[in-house]
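seq/struct pair 1
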Amino acid sequence: MLKNYLTIAWRNLLKHKIASFINIGGLSIGMAVTTLIGLWIWDELNFDHYHTNYDRVAQIQQYESKNGNTETWPAVPFPLGNELKTLYGNNFKYIAMASWQGDHMLSTNNNYLNKNGIYIDKDGPYILSLDMLKGSRKSLSNPNSILISESTAKAFLEMRTPSINR
């Protein structure tokens, strides 16, 4: 009986080729769009959940009005950090001001490496719940110290280690 239904369906598809193409094409496009929307929603709901307190981390943004247009920027004046600590310090456990992301030259023992990064206050590693492989999160208390990723540390080690292929 199932074979009979499939045979009739196939004959109708061949008999009405244009209508079948439109129906099957519309169904496949609809399913693809639905899948993409579902993936987009899933991504939005799971974004930045790798932080320990992801539901308590916030970014302050600034509204700016120019010529009747209001724009939003993630940049705020640097003194705002001290003002937040002074006025609202009991409401926030950590407050960290950060710079724009950009290229920075790192050097050690005449080895230079150009890497992308930011400057951030000493509370940054606590807010972002960074996993430290060596050292501690308190290292940013010293203004002459930096935190680097594992890949950057490996790049420095490769630069220090003499290689036969060089």
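seq/struct pair 2
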Amino acid sequence: MRVSWGFDAHRLGGPPPVLLAGVVADSERGVLATSDGDVVAHAVADALLGACGLGDLGVHFPSSDEQWAGADSLDLLGRVVEMCEGALIRYVDVTVIAEAIPVAPHRQAMRDNLARVLAIDVERVAVKATSTDGMGFIGHDEGLAATALVTVELPG
């Protein structure tokens, strides 16, 4: 059994929308990113890559490579799942850190999307939210972040 942690953060300011696990969480604002900037999908993908000993997102999908411009982050997460072939994903726990982007109304859809892409039961996916209470770039509503913890069972 392996446990790994992933993190992603983006500045607000790009073209709308803000996506969280493929769900539109803010249709008026966007993030500055090479791909669609889905911090949840990126954090989960990084955690999975770490658990499987495969590096990080930047190794496989570098932001300097134009082919990833505007990429669908759930598609990237699906590619990561394929890279982790044979690994059994046991649990995924995500925390979204944002000041004014709501998570609660989208929580179930986010869990459903993650479970579908990860090919696990939705009860094995947790999505939580917090803020920084006005501190830092997140607290000043200039960006958002996500953390993810995954447990996987590797073959052999």
